[in-house]
Each structure stands twice: as C-alpha cells, then as structure tokens.
Amino acid sequence: MAPAEPAAIRIELVWSPRPGCVLAEPLLLAAGSTVSQALSASPRFAQDRAGLEAGGPLCVGVWGRQQALETVLRDRDRVEVYRPLSVDPKEARRLRYRATGRRIVSRHRPLSGKTGA
To answer: Global pTM?
Structure first.
C-alpha cells in the first residue's frame, strides 16, 4: 500500500525586495499546490511583488534551481524569488579588481596544483 499524501504541505517563501534585505515567510498550503499558488498565498509577498515584477517577469526557483510557476511543490520546499541582476557578474569582478588591484582567487579552482606531463 502506498503512503497517503499529506492534506497540507509546509513551505518557506523567500524573496529580497532590495539589496541587503531578505524576507522569509512560512506558508501552509494544500497538497498539490504550485509555485504560483504559493506566491498568491502570501500577503507579505504581495506588497513587494509589483516592485519585483517591474524589472521583468518573475524568476523563481525551488532550493536554488530555477522552476516554472506551474511546478508542483512538496512538503518543506523552499521557494525563492530572484531579483533581476543589476550588474553583470563578470563586470562586477572587473570593477572589484580595478578598485583593489588584487586578483580575486576562487576557492573552487586553485591557481596551482595541476600536474603536467
């Protein structure tokens, strides 16, 4: 016998209306709810939605992966609303380099350590 689906799911809706400000709201939704329904269920998010949509259509994700508004949610999902980028990431690195004069080293790709033949 298959386990019964819960009648309600708990999710967390997270968005950033402006730089340096991250807001999170826990929501209780019916099982089978979509990302779009989660956005509509939050009165706090509705206040910031118009400002976020001014930069273009909403870009949303679940646990850091971009998803469509029709995506069905599961219990304990984290729905994230992304603001449009204000500066291209490559350009931001160039500006930081010009300001500091130091090379920015990534932790994920060391400068040395490759062994050549």
So the answer is: 0.68
d(CA 54, CA 84) in angstroms, rounded, equals 10
pLDDT digits (tens, 9 = 90+) for 29-78: 999 999 999 999 988 887 777 667 666 677 899 999 999 989 999 999 99
How many whole angstroms separate alpha carbon 104 and alpha carbon 94? 9
Amino acid making up residue 37: Q
Q: Distance between CA atoms of 92 and 116, rounded to whole angstroms?
A: 33
- Say if residues 23 and 15 touch (Cβ distance below 8 Å): yes
Q: If we measure between CA atoms, which residue out of 21, 30, 18, 38 comes closest to residue 78?
A: 38
Could you give the 3-state DSSP secondary structure of residue 44? helix
The C-alpha atoms of residue 12 and residue 10 are separated, in whole angstroms, by 7
Picking from 6-20, 32-46, 82-96, which range would have the lowest pLDDT averaged per residue? 82-96
The two three-digit tokens of residue 20, written as one number? 């340096």
Contact status, residue 30 vs residue 11, Cβ threshold 8 Å = no
User: How many CB atoms are closer than 10 A to CB 38?
Assistant: 25
